[in-house]
Amino acid sequence: MSAPKLTVHAQPEPERLRIFDTTLRDGEQAPGFSMTPAEKLEMARHLAAMKVDTIEAGFAAASPGDKQAVHTIAREIHGSTICSLARASESDIDAAAEALEPARRSRLHIFLATSPIHRQAKLKMSRMEVLKAIEHALTHARGSFDEIEFSAEDALRTETEFLVEALSVAAANGADVLNVPDTVGVSEPAEIRALFEHLTSSVERPEHVIFSAHCHNDLGLAVANSLAAVQGGARQVECAINGIGERAGNCSLEEAVMAINVRPDIFPVITQVDTTRLWPASQMLSRLTGAPIAPNKAIVGKNAFAHEAGIHQHGVISDRRTYEIMTPASVGAPGSELVLGKHSGKHALAQRLQALGYELDEAGLAEAFRAFKDLADMHGEVTDADLAGLMEGHSASGSAWTVLRTELRCTAGPRPTQFARVELDHPERGRVSDIAKGDGPVAAAFGAVQRITGADADVSALETRMVHSATGREFIAEIEVDVHGRTVRGRARGPDIVTAALDAFLFSLDRADALNSANPQSQPAAQAG
Ligand code: KIV
Ligand code: ZN
User: Fold this and answer.
1) Which residues surround ligand 2, an ion (CB under 5 A)?
2) pLDDT for 87-107, tens place per residue?
3) H, E, C per residue of 38-100
4) What CATH number labels 402-518?
5) Which of 70, 147, 168, 445 has the most CB atoms within 10 Å of its CB?
6) What is the C-alpha separation between 51 and 346, in angstroms, rounded?
7) Which atom of ligand 1 is nearest to the CA of 216?
8) Mean pLDDT for the chain?
9) pTM over 0.85
Protein backbone atom coordinates (compact mmCIF):
# COMPACT_ATOMS: atom_id res chain seq x y z
CA MET A 1 0.00 0.00 0.00
CA SER A 2 1.41 3.38 -0.92
CA ALA A 3 1.83 6.04 1.78
CA PRO A 4 -1.03 8.54 2.08
CA LYS A 5 -0.29 11.76 0.26
CA LEU A 6 0.26 14.85 2.36
CA THR A 7 -1.28 18.00 0.98
CA VAL A 8 0.92 20.98 1.87
CA HIS A 9 -0.76 24.32 1.51
CA ALA A 10 1.91 26.83 0.61
CA GLN A 11 1.66 29.93 2.81
CA PRO A 12 1.58 33.07 0.68
CA GLU A 13 4.79 35.10 1.05
CA PRO A 14 4.11 38.03 3.37
CA GLU A 15 4.04 41.28 1.43
CA ARG A 16 6.41 44.14 2.24
CA LEU A 17 5.01 46.97 4.29
CA ARG A 18 6.83 50.26 3.77
CA ILE A 19 7.59 52.34 6.86
CA PHE A 20 7.43 56.06 6.17
CA ASP A 21 8.82 58.01 9.10
CA THR A 22 7.49 61.52 9.67
CA THR A 23 9.18 62.25 13.02
CA LEU A 24 11.10 65.09 11.39
CA ARG A 25 8.08 66.67 9.67
CA ASP A 26 4.66 66.02 11.23
CA GLY A 27 6.40 65.24 14.53
CA GLU A 28 8.84 68.11 14.53
CA GLN A 29 6.19 70.71 13.69
CA ALA A 30 4.20 69.94 16.86
CA PRO A 31 4.69 72.43 19.73
CA GLY A 32 7.73 71.61 21.83
CA PHE A 33 9.30 69.17 19.37
CA SER A 34 11.32 71.61 17.25
CA MET A 35 14.83 70.46 16.41
CA THR A 36 17.81 72.30 14.99
CA PRO A 37 19.11 71.09 11.58
CA ALA A 38 22.00 69.34 13.39
CA GLU A 39 19.57 67.55 15.69
CA LYS A 40 17.40 66.54 12.73
CA LEU A 41 20.46 65.13 11.02
CA GLU A 42 21.40 63.10 14.09
CA MET A 43 17.89 61.67 14.26
CA ALA A 44 17.82 60.98 10.50
CA ARG A 45 21.09 59.02 10.81
CA HIS A 46 19.50 56.77 13.37
CA LEU A 47 16.31 56.34 11.31
CA ALA A 48 18.33 55.33 8.26
CA ALA A 49 20.38 52.86 10.32
CA MET A 50 17.08 51.47 11.57
CA LYS A 51 16.15 50.95 7.90
CA VAL A 52 12.93 52.90 7.63
CA ASP A 53 12.02 53.02 3.94
CA THR A 54 11.37 56.76 3.75
CA ILE A 55 12.37 59.68 5.96
CA GLU A 56 10.16 62.73 5.60
CA ALA A 57 12.86 65.24 6.46
CA GLY A 58 10.71 68.38 6.51
CA PHE A 59 8.63 70.82 4.53
CA ALA A 60 11.08 72.68 2.30
CA ALA A 61 8.77 75.62 1.54
CA ALA A 62 7.87 76.24 5.19
CA SER A 63 11.06 78.15 6.02
CA PRO A 64 14.67 78.55 4.88
CA GLY A 65 15.75 76.53 7.93
CA ASP A 66 13.47 73.63 7.02
CA LYS A 67 14.70 73.70 3.43
CA GLN A 68 18.30 73.63 4.64
CA ALA A 69 17.57 70.71 6.96
CA VAL A 70 15.97 68.70 4.12
CA HIS A 71 18.95 69.51 1.88
CA THR A 72 21.51 68.45 4.50
CA ILE A 73 19.68 65.21 5.26
CA ALA A 74 19.34 64.49 1.52
CA ARG A 75 23.09 65.01 1.11
CA GLU A 76 24.25 63.10 4.18
CA ILE A 77 21.86 60.22 4.61
CA HIS A 78 21.96 57.13 2.43
CA GLY A 79 19.88 53.99 2.54
CA SER A 80 16.43 55.50 3.05
CA THR A 81 14.48 57.55 0.51
CA ILE A 82 14.43 61.21 1.57
CA CYS A 83 11.15 63.07 1.25
CA SER A 84 9.92 66.65 1.48
CA LEU A 85 6.35 67.75 1.95
CA ALA A 86 4.84 70.32 -0.46
CA ARG A 87 1.47 71.95 -1.00
CA ALA A 88 0.00 71.52 -4.46
CA SER A 89 1.72 74.63 -5.73
CA GLU A 90 4.56 75.14 -8.19
CA SER A 91 6.69 77.16 -5.76
CA ASP A 92 6.39 74.52 -3.01
CA ILE A 93 7.27 71.76 -5.48
CA ASP A 94 10.27 73.72 -6.78
CA ALA A 95 11.50 74.35 -3.22
CA ALA A 96 11.25 70.62 -2.51
CA ALA A 97 13.13 69.78 -5.74
CA GLU A 98 15.99 72.13 -4.77
CA ALA A 99 16.14 70.75 -1.24
CA LEU A 100 16.12 67.14 -2.42
CA GLU A 101 18.61 67.67 -5.22
CA PRO A 102 21.50 65.75 -3.53
CA ALA A 103 19.33 62.77 -2.45
CA ARG A 104 20.28 59.28 -3.62
CA ARG A 105 16.56 58.62 -3.85
CA SER A 106 14.04 61.42 -3.51
CA ARG A 107 10.33 61.55 -2.87
CA LEU A 108 7.98 64.48 -3.20
CA HIS A 109 4.94 64.41 -0.92
CA ILE A 110 2.19 66.64 -2.30
CA PHE A 111 -0.90 67.22 -0.23
CA LEU A 112 -4.22 68.85 -0.97
CA ALA A 113 -7.35 68.65 1.14
CA THR A 114 -10.32 66.86 -0.37
CA SER A 115 -13.01 66.94 2.36
CA PRO A 116 -16.02 69.30 2.06
CA ILE A 117 -15.10 71.24 5.20
CA HIS A 118 -11.56 71.88 3.94
CA ARG A 119 -12.72 72.61 0.38
CA GLN A 120 -15.25 75.16 1.54
CA ALA A 121 -13.75 76.71 4.67
CA LYS A 122 -10.05 76.61 3.88
CA LEU A 123 -9.40 76.21 0.15
CA LYS A 124 -12.56 77.85 -1.22
CA MET A 125 -12.37 75.42 -4.13
CA SER A 126 -14.98 73.30 -5.87
CA ARG A 127 -14.50 69.58 -6.40
CA MET A 128 -13.55 70.24 -10.01
CA GLU A 129 -10.96 72.84 -8.97
CA VAL A 130 -9.44 70.37 -6.51
CA LEU A 131 -9.13 67.73 -9.25
CA LYS A 132 -7.56 70.25 -11.60
CA ALA A 133 -5.09 71.36 -8.91
CA ILE A 134 -4.03 67.74 -8.28
CA GLU A 135 -3.49 67.20 -11.99
CA HIS A 136 -1.56 70.46 -12.34
CA ALA A 137 0.70 69.82 -9.33
CA LEU A 138 1.57 66.29 -10.41
CA THR A 139 2.23 67.38 -13.97
CA HIS A 140 4.57 70.09 -12.69
CA ALA A 141 6.38 67.63 -10.38
CA ARG A 142 6.73 64.70 -12.77
CA GLY A 143 10.30 63.96 -13.78
CA SER A 144 11.94 65.95 -10.95
CA PHE A 145 11.78 63.24 -8.26
CA ASP A 146 12.33 59.50 -8.07
CA GLU A 147 8.92 58.99 -6.49
CA ILE A 148 5.83 61.07 -5.90
CA GLU A 149 3.30 60.61 -3.13
CA PHE A 150 -0.08 62.29 -3.12
CA SER A 151 -2.05 62.85 0.09
CA ALA A 152 -5.75 63.61 0.09
CA GLU A 153 -5.71 65.63 3.29
CA ASP A 154 -8.68 64.88 5.57
CA ALA A 155 -9.48 61.83 3.45
CA LEU A 156 -11.53 60.20 6.18
CA ARG A 157 -14.08 63.04 6.05
CA THR A 158 -14.16 63.13 2.25
CA GLU A 159 -17.14 61.81 0.27
CA THR A 160 -16.00 58.30 -0.71
CA GLU A 161 -16.81 58.62 -4.40
CA PHE A 162 -14.92 61.93 -4.61
CA LEU A 163 -11.95 60.42 -2.76
CA VAL A 164 -11.84 57.61 -5.34
CA GLU A 165 -11.94 60.21 -8.10
CA ALA A 166 -9.20 62.39 -6.54
CA LEU A 167 -6.88 59.45 -5.95
CA SER A 168 -7.50 58.12 -9.47
CA VAL A 169 -6.55 61.54 -10.92
CA ALA A 170 -3.38 61.54 -8.81
CA ALA A 171 -2.44 58.02 -9.96
CA ALA A 172 -3.20 58.83 -13.60
CA ASN A 173 -0.85 61.81 -13.39
CA GLY A 174 2.15 60.05 -11.92
CA ALA A 175 1.62 59.48 -8.17
CA ASP A 176 3.37 56.30 -7.01
CA VAL A 177 1.92 56.33 -3.50
CA LEU A 178 -1.64 57.31 -2.60
CA ASN A 179 -1.81 58.43 1.00
CA VAL A 180 -5.14 58.43 2.84
CA PRO A 181 -4.71 60.58 5.95
CA ASP A 182 -7.04 60.55 8.90
CA THR A 183 -5.92 64.13 9.45
CA VAL A 184 -8.16 64.79 12.44
CA GLY A 185 -7.95 61.31 14.00
CA VAL A 186 -11.68 60.70 13.80
CA SER A 187 -11.82 57.19 12.36
CA GLU A 188 -11.96 53.76 14.03
CA PRO A 189 -10.55 50.42 12.90
CA ALA A 190 -13.58 48.83 11.21
CA GLU A 191 -14.34 52.00 9.25
CA ILE A 192 -10.81 52.61 8.02
CA ARG A 193 -10.27 48.98 7.09
CA ALA A 194 -13.46 49.02 5.00
CA LEU A 195 -12.36 52.25 3.34
CA PHE A 196 -8.99 50.79 2.33
CA GLU A 197 -10.69 47.64 1.02
CA HIS A 198 -12.94 49.85 -1.08
CA LEU A 199 -10.15 52.13 -2.33
CA THR A 200 -7.79 49.31 -3.27
CA SER A 201 -10.53 47.77 -5.39
CA SER A 202 -11.97 50.97 -6.92
CA VAL A 203 -9.17 53.47 -7.54
CA GLU A 204 -7.84 53.21 -11.10
CA ARG A 205 -4.08 53.06 -11.02
CA PRO A 206 -0.97 51.49 -12.55
CA GLU A 207 0.01 48.22 -10.87
CA HIS A 208 3.00 49.54 -8.93
CA VAL A 209 1.00 52.21 -7.07
CA ILE A 210 0.53 51.48 -3.37
CA PHE A 211 -1.82 52.84 -0.71
CA SER A 212 -0.65 54.44 2.48
CA ALA A 213 -2.22 55.21 5.86
CA HIS A 214 -1.46 58.34 7.91
CA CYS A 215 -3.45 58.28 11.14
CA HIS A 216 -3.62 60.88 13.87
CA ASN A 217 -4.20 59.94 17.46
CA ASP A 218 -6.96 62.30 18.61
CA LEU A 219 -9.05 59.37 19.88
CA GLY A 220 -6.04 57.26 20.84
CA LEU A 221 -6.65 55.00 17.83
CA ALA A 222 -3.80 55.93 15.48
CA VAL A 223 -1.92 52.64 15.80
CA ALA A 224 -5.09 50.49 15.74
CA ASN A 225 -6.36 52.41 12.71
CA SER A 226 -3.04 52.11 10.85
CA LEU A 227 -2.97 48.36 11.46
CA ALA A 228 -6.59 48.05 10.33
CA ALA A 229 -5.66 49.98 7.17
CA VAL A 230 -2.90 47.41 6.56
CA GLN A 231 -5.49 44.65 6.87
CA GLY A 232 -7.56 46.59 4.34
CA GLY A 233 -4.69 46.71 1.84
CA ALA A 234 -2.40 49.63 2.82
CA ARG A 235 1.23 48.81 2.03
CA GLN A 236 2.79 51.89 3.59
CA VAL A 237 2.24 53.21 7.09
CA GLU A 238 3.23 56.76 8.05
CA CYS A 239 4.37 57.02 11.62
CA ALA A 240 6.69 58.78 14.05
CA ILE A 241 9.01 57.76 16.85
CA ASN A 242 7.22 58.00 20.22
CA GLY A 243 4.07 58.79 18.21
CA ILE A 244 4.87 62.51 18.06
CA GLY A 245 2.93 64.72 15.66
CA GLU A 246 0.26 67.38 15.45
CA ARG A 247 -2.05 67.56 18.50
CA ALA A 248 -2.28 64.05 20.01
CA GLY A 249 0.34 62.82 17.56
CA ASN A 250 0.73 60.28 14.79
CA CYS A 251 0.80 56.50 14.72
CA SER A 252 3.73 55.42 16.90
CA LEU A 253 6.36 53.75 14.73
CA GLU A 254 7.61 51.41 17.43
CA GLU A 255 4.11 50.20 18.31
CA ALA A 256 3.04 49.57 14.72
CA VAL A 257 6.26 47.78 13.80
CA MET A 258 6.23 45.56 16.88
CA ALA A 259 2.54 44.69 16.49
CA ILE A 260 3.35 43.47 12.98
CA ASN A 261 6.39 41.54 14.23
CA VAL A 262 4.64 39.94 17.19
CA ARG A 263 1.45 39.01 15.31
CA PRO A 264 2.39 37.74 11.82
CA ASP A 265 -0.72 35.55 12.02
CA ILE A 266 -2.90 38.68 11.93
CA PHE A 267 -0.81 41.04 9.82
CA PRO A 268 0.44 39.28 6.67
CA VAL A 269 3.21 41.79 6.00
CA ILE A 270 6.85 42.30 6.93
CA THR A 271 8.89 45.44 7.40
CA GLN A 272 12.63 45.79 7.04
CA VAL A 273 13.00 47.78 10.28
CA ASP A 274 15.84 46.78 12.59
CA THR A 275 13.73 46.59 15.73
CA THR A 276 16.75 46.57 18.07
CA ARG A 277 17.09 50.27 17.26
CA LEU A 278 13.60 51.21 18.43
CA TRP A 279 14.35 51.87 22.08
CA PRO A 280 17.53 53.85 21.30
CA ALA A 281 15.61 55.90 18.70
CA SER A 282 12.97 56.72 21.26
CA GLN A 283 15.62 57.75 23.83
CA MET A 284 17.43 59.85 21.24
CA LEU A 285 14.28 61.75 20.32
CA SER A 286 13.45 62.35 23.96
CA ARG A 287 16.97 63.63 24.58
CA LEU A 288 16.96 65.92 21.53
CA THR A 289 13.55 67.45 22.18
CA GLY A 290 13.54 67.33 25.98
CA ALA A 291 10.13 65.62 25.82
CA PRO A 292 9.88 62.79 28.35
CA ILE A 293 8.52 59.33 27.52
CA ALA A 294 5.59 58.15 29.65
CA PRO A 295 6.80 55.28 31.86
CA ASN A 296 3.93 53.07 30.68
CA LYS A 297 4.43 53.87 26.97
CA ALA A 298 4.21 50.62 24.96
CA ILE A 299 7.54 49.23 23.68
CA VAL A 300 9.77 52.10 24.83
CA GLY A 301 8.48 53.23 28.25
CA LYS A 302 10.71 52.45 31.19
CA ASN A 303 8.05 50.11 32.61
CA ALA A 304 7.44 48.30 29.31
CA PHE A 305 9.54 45.35 30.50
CA ALA A 306 9.44 45.92 34.25
CA HIS A 307 7.73 43.44 36.54
CA GLU A 308 6.90 44.65 40.01
CA ALA A 309 4.10 42.39 41.22
CA GLY A 310 5.25 39.25 43.01
CA ILE A 311 3.14 36.89 40.91
CA HIS A 312 4.47 38.45 37.73
CA GLN A 313 8.06 38.32 38.96
CA HIS A 314 7.66 34.67 39.87
CA GLY A 315 6.26 33.89 36.42
CA VAL A 316 8.98 35.81 34.61
CA ILE A 317 11.73 34.12 36.63
CA SER A 318 10.31 30.70 35.66
CA ASP A 319 9.81 31.64 32.03
CA ARG A 320 9.81 35.20 30.69
CA ARG A 321 7.09 34.29 28.18
CA THR A 322 4.50 34.11 30.99
CA TYR A 323 4.26 37.90 30.99
CA GLU A 324 6.37 39.07 28.05
CA ILE A 325 5.27 38.89 24.43
CA MET A 326 8.62 40.16 23.15
CA THR A 327 12.08 40.35 24.66
CA PRO A 328 13.67 43.64 25.75
CA ALA A 329 16.59 42.77 23.49
CA SER A 330 14.30 42.59 20.44
CA VAL A 331 13.58 46.31 20.77
CA GLY A 332 17.02 47.28 22.08
CA ALA A 333 15.69 48.02 25.57
CA PRO A 334 17.80 47.88 28.74
CA GLY A 335 17.96 44.46 30.29
CA SER A 336 20.79 43.49 28.05
CA GLU A 337 23.34 41.07 29.38
CA LEU A 338 26.18 43.55 28.95
CA VAL A 339 27.41 44.72 32.35
CA LEU A 340 29.64 47.75 32.55
CA GLY A 341 31.86 48.31 35.57
CA LYS A 342 35.09 49.89 36.70
CA HIS A 343 37.14 47.55 34.53
CA SER A 344 35.26 48.44 31.35
CA GLY A 345 37.08 50.53 28.77
CA LYS A 346 36.11 53.55 26.74
CA HIS A 347 35.27 51.37 23.75
CA ALA A 348 32.70 49.30 25.66
CA LEU A 349 31.16 52.51 27.04
CA ALA A 350 31.01 54.08 23.58
CA GLN A 351 29.33 50.97 22.18
CA ARG A 352 26.71 50.86 24.91
CA LEU A 353 26.03 54.59 24.67
CA GLN A 354 25.61 54.28 20.93
CA ALA A 355 23.19 51.40 21.36
CA LEU A 356 21.26 53.61 23.78
CA GLY A 357 21.08 56.34 21.16
CA TYR A 358 23.83 58.68 22.34
CA GLU A 359 26.23 59.71 19.59
CA LEU A 360 29.17 61.52 21.16
CA ASP A 361 32.21 63.20 19.69
CA GLU A 362 35.71 62.57 21.10
CA ALA A 363 35.46 65.28 23.75
CA GLY A 364 31.93 64.26 24.79
CA LEU A 365 33.00 60.64 25.12
CA ALA A 366 36.05 61.56 27.19
CA GLU A 367 33.83 63.57 29.55
CA ALA A 368 31.24 60.80 29.75
CA PHE A 369 34.01 58.25 30.40
CA ARG A 370 35.33 60.25 33.37
CA ALA A 371 31.84 60.49 34.88
CA PHE A 372 31.26 56.80 34.18
CA LYS A 373 34.48 55.81 35.99
CA ASP A 374 33.48 57.84 39.06
CA LEU A 375 30.12 56.11 39.07
CA ALA A 376 31.65 52.67 38.59
CA ASP A 377 34.13 53.29 41.44
CA MET A 378 31.28 54.10 43.78
CA HIS A 379 28.80 51.45 42.69
CA GLY A 380 30.63 48.67 40.90
CA GLU A 381 28.04 47.86 38.26
CA VAL A 382 26.66 50.59 35.98
CA THR A 383 23.25 49.87 34.51
CA ASP A 384 21.63 51.33 31.41
CA ALA A 385 19.43 53.48 33.64
CA ASP A 386 22.56 54.85 35.38
CA LEU A 387 24.02 55.66 31.97
CA ALA A 388 20.84 57.40 30.84
CA GLY A 389 20.91 59.48 34.06
CA LEU A 390 24.54 60.31 33.50
CA MET A 391 23.85 61.38 29.93
CA GLU A 392 20.83 63.47 30.92
CA GLY A 393 23.10 65.48 33.20
CA HIS A 394 25.67 65.61 30.42
CA SER A 395 23.29 66.88 27.76
CA ALA A 396 21.63 69.38 30.09
CA SER A 397 24.93 71.02 30.93
CA GLY A 398 25.13 72.47 27.42
CA SER A 399 23.95 75.96 28.46
CA ALA A 400 26.33 78.88 28.00
CA TRP A 401 25.31 80.08 31.49
CA THR A 402 26.34 78.24 34.64
CA VAL A 403 24.55 78.70 37.95
CA LEU A 404 27.07 79.73 40.59
CA ARG A 405 24.80 80.51 43.50
CA THR A 406 21.13 80.73 44.41
CA GLU A 407 19.82 82.37 47.59
CA LEU A 408 16.16 82.22 48.48
CA ARG A 409 14.38 84.40 51.03
CA CYS A 410 10.81 84.22 52.21
CA THR A 411 9.04 86.93 54.24
CA ALA A 412 6.65 85.81 56.96
CA GLY A 413 3.15 87.13 57.53
CA PRO A 414 -0.26 86.74 55.92
CA ARG A 415 1.06 87.52 52.41
CA PRO A 416 4.55 86.01 52.22
CA THR A 417 6.76 87.08 49.36
CA GLN A 418 9.59 85.07 47.92
CA PHE A 419 12.84 86.61 46.78
CA ALA A 420 15.64 84.93 44.89
CA ARG A 421 19.15 86.13 44.24
CA VAL A 422 20.85 84.18 41.47
CA GLU A 423 24.43 84.45 40.33
CA LEU A 424 25.33 83.12 36.90
CA ASP A 425 28.57 82.81 35.01
CA HIS A 426 28.95 83.30 31.27
CA PRO A 427 32.05 82.74 29.10
CA GLU A 428 31.81 86.30 27.70
CA ARG A 429 29.79 88.27 30.27
CA GLY A 430 31.48 86.77 33.32
CA ARG A 431 29.72 86.68 36.70
CA VAL A 432 26.36 88.44 36.82
CA SER A 433 23.83 88.39 39.63
CA ASP A 434 20.35 89.79 40.10
CA ILE A 435 17.37 89.63 42.42
CA ALA A 436 13.71 89.04 41.63
CA LYS A 437 10.45 88.55 43.48
CA GLY A 438 7.99 85.78 42.66
CA ASP A 439 4.99 83.89 43.98
CA GLY A 440 7.20 80.92 44.78
CA PRO A 441 10.92 80.31 45.26
CA VAL A 442 11.38 78.74 41.84
CA ALA A 443 9.36 81.48 40.09
CA ALA A 444 11.52 84.10 41.84
CA ALA A 445 14.68 82.30 40.73
CA PHE A 446 13.39 82.17 37.14
CA GLY A 447 12.65 85.89 37.35
CA ALA A 448 16.24 86.60 38.40
CA VAL A 449 17.56 84.50 35.51
CA GLN A 450 15.34 86.40 33.09
CA ARG A 451 16.67 89.73 34.39
CA ILE A 452 20.24 88.52 33.89
CA THR A 453 19.83 86.89 30.48
CA GLY A 454 17.23 89.33 29.12
CA ALA A 455 15.17 86.37 27.95
CA ASP A 456 11.48 87.01 27.42
CA ALA A 457 10.17 83.62 28.44
CA ASP A 458 6.96 82.28 29.88
CA VAL A 459 7.11 78.99 31.80
CA SER A 460 4.01 77.02 30.81
CA ALA A 461 4.78 73.79 32.68
CA LEU A 462 7.24 72.61 35.27
CA GLU A 463 7.41 69.17 36.82
CA THR A 464 9.93 68.02 39.34
CA ARG A 465 10.43 64.60 40.86
CA MET A 466 12.84 62.91 43.17
CA VAL A 467 14.74 59.85 42.01
CA HIS A 468 17.12 57.50 43.74
CA SER A 469 20.06 57.23 41.40
CA ALA A 470 23.40 55.50 41.71
CA THR A 471 24.82 58.69 43.21
CA GLY A 472 22.10 59.12 45.83
CA ARG A 473 18.96 61.25 45.95
CA GLU A 474 18.51 63.59 43.00
CA PHE A 475 15.81 65.76 41.48
CA ILE A 476 14.72 65.83 37.86
CA ALA A 477 13.06 68.94 36.48
CA GLU A 478 11.16 68.96 33.20
CA ILE A 479 10.09 72.30 31.87
CA GLU A 480 8.09 73.74 28.99
CA VAL A 481 8.79 77.36 28.12
CA ASP A 482 7.26 79.69 25.54
CA VAL A 483 9.92 81.97 24.10
CA HIS A 484 8.74 84.43 21.43
CA GLY A 485 5.88 82.14 20.36
CA ARG A 486 8.03 79.02 20.23
CA THR A 487 7.52 76.22 22.73
CA VAL A 488 10.71 74.53 23.90
CA ARG A 489 11.34 71.86 26.47
CA GLY A 490 14.24 71.26 28.77
CA ARG A 491 15.19 68.70 31.34
CA ALA A 492 17.92 68.60 33.96
CA ARG A 493 19.00 66.80 37.09
CA GLY A 494 20.27 68.41 40.22
CA PRO A 495 20.89 67.87 43.91
CA ASP A 496 17.80 69.95 44.80
CA ILE A 497 14.62 71.16 43.12
CA VAL A 498 15.73 74.76 42.52
CA THR A 499 19.07 73.81 40.95
CA ALA A 500 17.43 71.23 38.68
CA ALA A 501 14.70 73.69 37.68
CA LEU A 502 17.18 76.50 36.96
CA ASP A 503 19.37 74.21 34.85
CA ALA A 504 16.33 73.00 32.90
CA PHE A 505 15.22 76.63 32.42
CA LEU A 506 18.65 77.74 31.16
CA PHE A 507 18.83 74.70 28.91
CA SER A 508 15.48 75.54 27.31
CA LEU A 509 16.48 79.21 26.81
CA ASP A 510 19.57 78.01 24.98
CA ARG A 511 17.48 75.64 22.88
CA ALA A 512 15.16 78.48 21.91
CA ASP A 513 18.20 80.56 20.86
CA ALA A 514 19.64 77.67 18.82
CA LEU A 515 16.29 77.02 17.13
CA ASN A 516 15.74 80.68 16.39
CA SER A 517 19.13 81.18 14.81
CA ALA A 518 18.75 77.95 12.79
CA ASN A 519 15.24 78.73 11.67
CA PRO A 520 14.34 82.37 12.26
CA GLN A 521 11.43 82.58 9.85
CA SER A 522 9.57 79.38 10.64
CA GLN A 523 5.94 79.95 9.68
CA PRO A 524 3.56 77.77 11.64
CA ALA A 525 0.79 78.86 9.24
CA ALA A 526 2.55 77.06 6.41
CA GLN A 527 2.62 73.78 8.28
CA ALA A 528 0.40 70.80 7.70
CA GLY A 529 -1.13 68.32 10.06
O1 KIV B 1 -2.37 64.75 8.68
C2 KIV B 1 -2.25 65.03 7.47
O3 KIV B 1 -3.20 65.07 6.71
C4 KIV B 1 -0.90 65.32 6.99
C5 KIV B 1 -0.75 65.38 5.52
C6 KIV B 1 0.16 66.47 5.10
C7 KIV B 1 -0.31 64.04 5.03
O8 KIV B 1 0.04 65.40 7.74
ZN1 ZN C 1 -0.46 64.49 9.71
Assistant:
1) 26, 529
2) 999 999 999 999 999 999 999
3) HHHHHHHHHHHHCCCCEEEEECHHHCHHHHHHHHHHHHHCCCCEEEEEEECCHHHHHHHHHHC
4) 3.30.160.270
5) 70
6) 28
7) 1
8) 88
9) no
